[in-house]
Amino acid sequence: MDVTKSNFRSVLEGIDDELEKASFIAIDTEFTGLNDGGSNKLSSLDTPAERYKKVLNGSSEFLVVQFGLSIFTFEKKVSKYVNKTYNFYVFPHTSMGGLCDKKFMSQASSLSFLATQGFDFNKLIKEGIPYLNLLEEEKVKLKLEKRNKFSNVDSKVPCHNNEISEIPPDQKGYVDHIVSKVTTFFESNGNDEEKSPAILEFQCSSLQSELIFSHVRTRYPNLLFVSAKKTCGGCTVTVKKAASSCNLEKESVDKKSLPAAEKPRIEDYMGFSEVVRKITNSGKLVVGHNMLLDLCHILGQFCEPLPEDYEEFKAMTNTFFPRVIDTKVMATTKPFRDLLPNSALGPLLKALLKAPFRNTEIVTAKDFPSYKDDSLKEHEAGYDAFVTGRCLIALTNYLGKLFYASHKAAAVHESSLIAPFYQKIYMMMVTDIPYMTLSGPDLEPSREHIFYVTFPKSWKLHDIFHLFSVHGTVRVDWTGDTSAFVTLHRKENCHFVLSAMNESTLPVGCSVISYETYVNSKHKNVASSQAAEVQEQEPPRKRSGPVMHSNSSALPSPKKSRRDSENPKLNKTQFAVSADWD
Amino acid sequence: MDVTKSNFRSVLEGIDDELEKASFIAIDTEFTGLNDGGSNKLSSLDTPAERYKKVLNGSSEFLVVQFGLSIFTFEKKVSKYVNKTYNFYVFPHTSMGGLCDKKFMSQASSLSFLATQGFDFNKLIKEGIPYLNLLEEEKVKLKLEKRNKFSNVDSKVPCHNNEISEIPPDQKGYVDHIVSKVTTFFESNGNDEEKSPAILEFQCSSLQSELIFSHVRTRYPNLLFVSAKKTCGGCTVTVKKAASSCNLEKESVDKKSLPAAEKPRIEDYMGFSEVVRKITNSGKLVVGHNMLLDLCHILGQFCEPLPEDYEEFKAMTNTFFPRVIDTKVMATTKPFRDLLPNSALGPLLKALLKAPFRNTEIVTAKDFPSYKDDSLKEHEAGYDAFVTGRCLIALTNYLGKLFYASHKAAAVHESSLIAPFYQKIYMMMVTDIPYMTLSGPDLEPSREHIFYVTFPKSWKLHDIFHLFSVHGTVRVDWTGDTSAFVTLHRKENCHFVLSAMNESTLPVGCSVISYETYVNSKHKNVASSQAAEVQEQEPPRKRSGPVMHSNSSALPSPKKSRRDSENPKLNKTQFAVSADWD
């Protein structure tokens, strides 16, 4: 179901109930861009902290423009899931003027990709649901309070000859023109709307609206300002005649609100952020696919600004999403890894719809889209969230089949078999650290077989291959014109590299150091530049959810979990999430 | 006429001819945003150099998405203009992958405003004409050359046991799967397309496409890679059987181009920049309305990156636009200032369609839109350019009427009466410096009546009014919580201010200095911080047009100008462009 400004309120009213009944929630988002490149370009050697930094610095200026929410509710009696999928169009506020006017980045190729998938940008911009995160909400409140102080106006303090503010010479003609219009307006009488209109409207600039208020009104105290709406390049001012002068105070538009049309209520501004708040407060299992970017955007755009510190990010995510699963982590881990050659969402679903996988039937609720195998909807956030949920069901069922002799389809959220996958978020491209571990320390594999190499600018790929040829084949990851990481395929040869390659044996202009030496020297540089700078740090922000400890070794337990005690054969380590290749 | 990718080539072919015949060219652009606010927010006290800096830093990350080009050609025999108006949709390249993938800013309110005016964003993104400025073109060329060096691949140097690159263990299953598919593909024979397809297509990741190329191809030398198209999250690889092995070299897709689909030609990339190049090379009079942002965006986006230095910007603009007029400068200068109360484009045209102004008839060329008074098209770039041209015609005719007893409508481009307006670009909000002077030194009015004031955070507007009340009414321009510029309406009182306001008479926490003192101290601070920094500067870029000197006191003369000698009554100083209020 597409959700825009027009039906948002009614959807919001029903969401609490839906979330309360939900077994689990699948999410997906579409953004205006992925990464701004440059130093934030992803590397296959990123550590989790480095990856987070790159996402924070290189991706967070892009915007989520579509949020897919797919709610799966297990009906035990019939062993089926009922599904309701929402496709929210979200767009920043556009009529708050100086209070809030978001600027955001877009990547041309991302917009083009969405357009080819049928995304409707006109609908987004005209009908997208606005939102504010908590920090933006605070700023808007503050600005509303300060509005009076900061209006740039001419003084109205009467000077000794009783003049109000002077009219700049280049505006005199205009003010006379308006006075003349108002005079005619006041002189007209009778019931003929054409000859005696009830209201008078005129176009002017913001400055002119101030002058009119000051000067024309003093000549016509019975002139009431009904509204002053900002238009491109100016205002449309609407005035009428007051019924009597004693009603003036009551009826008059507050001068301080010119030229804004309406006085906004802060409660109306949170918009779509309310939905996210309800999701994060529900405590339900949330599932996504390759979801690091989704999480970062959702947190930063609808909850609170992302922290600089990676550990703080982990704590924040655990707070807002105490139970989260990434189906790409599941699909690329044993036992699935060997059964599923392609873990991209579309091919993944295709494979999971066939043997040996088993699917629980999904019934679409009335008035909601039943996608079936509608791959025409691929890359619509709602559809992708739905597919993600389906994948989770099939993957969970398979684990059930592996471990329980006669396994009936059990609700995903009740299965302790997926607990090892909680709080693990997929890391693209990094073969030896395939996921971030939110609920504890990250994987720290040995990188003894990786070297940092510098060489002359003229060197090409084959020159590096040749340099390492005696140690077997390698993978090269460029870090610039004259440097690269080189990874040995034959890890066991790593002990020979540095002894074989030293100043006397290396070609001129080359150097080779271990990955560890490189990282240590980088940390030294960062530490000394941090010591030299004066750093102003904000006090840590209080989180608005329950406190979670990111270093806890205990995985968060599902609210309605079934204990393992009934089946002594269960061996969780058989499919412990691991990064080992073998 | 709307111009998109589909009809761009044919329009481009005809443009040289149109520009050759043109009398003058009107332009207008629509952008994704205006200003990013903060320290780049416009002030009514900006000098031209400060204003340029704010536009450079606060506006240039936004994008022109629509370019209106309205060509007016005067038919002398019938004393009419023939008009052709083009409405170009422009959008960055979206299928050049790593060669060029522009990231740009948008302002939510600007997009919303365009949408309400009927702008079609889906059309923009799908059909917008791409472009590159000169610097981007150079970078793309460089990247194309370097492509080989920077592909991250496994080595293909055979080691002593003749293996090619090793297959990572987690990819073994996938490679076996593809080998199996290809085996079936090669074994199938006959004419039945279903049983013996001509091509084989499969989805994979970039890494997998490299592995396939290395490993599968070695087993099947007759396997030809037709294409490898990048899709979201991976590639679609298409292969076929070579007719015979001797055709392999000829038919095979160059390995180096994987995973990109086509080998791009640099000539195809310039796109819409070609149109701008033709305009700037035409030497024709170019007219815009309130056109500073238009100029900066056009130069930066389609010509060359904008320089940091303001004087360099003036020289650059004069080079690319040797004859430019801003109708907002005309409309806000005598003799027009007193006749035209509202110089916004829409109201301006409305006023110019009535007496005492006179319009030359405009005939729309066949197949082009005849807007008439179609104000429904307002804020479509083509329409706004057309309106701008109409305004110029009416304004020029009026000058002709003023100075020549029996004035026939003369072509705008032949009228020396508008020469005083050349190279003057409107400056919004700044009453004492209403325009930038590109062709000479800028206006430097006295600002003796302006003061820089600091005060406690608790102060409100009336506190400042009160402080200055003895000197008459004032205008306050906030620069922050605790500072503002204060402008006396009664300039003559300026000499009393500083003597009246000193440490002993001012309230606690307040200070008042002259504008001049403030500016001098700001320059001192900038100079000392520049001396402390190590600045790396690129050598000045060569301009690609004729050299113009920005300090020349002679205004550039129109190519086909009529001399003033025939009418001794002409007195240019009567309407010399001036900033004096009186």
Automatic annotation (TrEMBL), chains A, B:
SUPFAM superfamilies: Ribonuclease H-like, RNA-binding domain, RBD. Residues 440-520 form the Poly(A)-specific ribonuclease RNA-binding domain. Residues 527-582 are annotated as: Disordered. One of its GO terms (biological process) is nuclear-transcribed mRNA poly(A) tail shortening. It comes from the Eukaryota. GO terms for molecular function: 3'-5'-RNA exonuclease activity; metal ion binding; poly(A)-specific ribonuclease activity; RNA binding. CDD domains: RRM_PARN. Pfam families: CAF1 (PF04857), RNA_bind (PF08675). InterPro entries: CAF1_poly(A)_ribonucleases, Nucleotide-bd_a/b_plait_sf, PolyA-riboNase_RNA-binding, R3H_dom_sf, RBD_domain_sf, RNase_CAF1, RNaseH-like_sf, RNaseH_sf. GO terms for cellular component: cytoplasm; nucleus. Belongs to the CAF1 family. This is Poly(A)-specific ribonuclease RNA-binding domain-containing protein. It comes from Daphnia pulex.
